[in-house]
Design a protein that fits this description.
CATH architecture: Sandwich
Strand content: over 45%
Distance between the termini: 44 Å
Strand order of the largest sheet: 2-1-9-8-5
Number of domains: 1
Number of strands: 9
Number of helices: 1
Order of helices and strands: HEEEEEEEEE
CATH class: Mainly Beta
Oligomer: single chain
Radius of gyration: 13 Å
Structural class: mainly beta
Shape: globular
Length: 91
């Protein structure tokens, strides 16, 4: 039964990695990611369309099955493709 619950979580999650040239801030599955770009706040959910954007200074919110993680950023680049989100900071 636990295996089935794990499969459901994986199907409803995205793989997220947030890092800078010298540090990895997050590298795990997430339920959603919230951030801000020039047009305002937005959310990335599973099955999101391919997407790339420049991030504005904000608190990046990563929701996981184990709780939320917040990362204060001064800006960055977000790339979303095939349920994989990569955030490059300090570039």
């Amino acid at each position: 039964m636990a295996h089935k619950a794990e499969q459901q979580t994986q199907q409803l999650s995205i793989r997220a990695k947030v890092y800078s040239p010298f540090k990895v801030y997050f590298d795990d599955n997430a339920l959603s990611i919230s951030a801000v770009n020039a047009t305002g706040p937005f959310d990335i959910l599973p099955r999101h369309h391919n997407f790339i954007t420049l991030l504005s200074p904000c608190e990046l919110l990563i929701r996981t099955p184990r709780g939320d993680q917040k990362i204060r950023i001064s800006g960055g680049i977000m790339h979303v493709k095939a349920d994989k989100v990569t955030v490059f900071l300090d570039v």
